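In response to reviewer comment 3 from the previous cycle, which asked for concrete evidence that the modeling workflow produces usable outputs, we include below a single protein chain processed end to end. The sequence was submitted unchanged, and the resulting structure tokens are shown without manual editing.
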Amino acid sequence: MKETRINVFSGLPFFIFIFLFGCAAGPPPIAIGPTPAPTEVIRYAPAEIPAKERPGHCWTDSIAASRKGAWRCMTGNEIYDPCFELGAAVVCDANPADGKQGFRLVLEKPLPPPGSAIAEPEAGWLIQLVDGRICNRATGARGMVAGGMTTYYCTTENPDESAVVLGELKTGTIWTAEIAVVERIGGKIREQKTVPVLRVWQ
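The workflow returned the following structure tokens.
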């Protein structure tokens, strides 16, 4: 049997055809980006005692990681914060974000008694952002950028700029950080935005 087709638009002016076709098709769909995964909060502990050793001592609680078993230590003229107790050993300069084990601090003095003001803050000594940046908690001199205190210093691929976190992290299912990218010379802000946090090490 021969199929018969009726063209219902054959008698309509062209502009009416376009109007009807546009209404039938509707607006194009809006692209929606993927929702970030919930922030992973990790209670860090060194997996093992590193083979590398350096002599030194610890004189106070960690500033970066305000928790029991975390210390602010020194070897030579270098300060490491945080260093972590692992049994009878102390491990410094570890970086779980890139798998760096750090070194064992051979204590030249006994550990001091822990301070009485140790708390468990909703913060971390190391964070990884969804854009790939790794940020360490600031433990020394801090500056002000765009009216906010720098709380973390982050990695950057451009040697002419610095990246910092302004203020404290915003906690929740998905943590966020206010990031400012600043020119090293002149201090001009190149970019400022809120970035989700992928992982937090406490």
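The mean pLDDT is 83. We consider this sufficient to address the reviewer's concern, and the full set will be provided in the supplementary archive.
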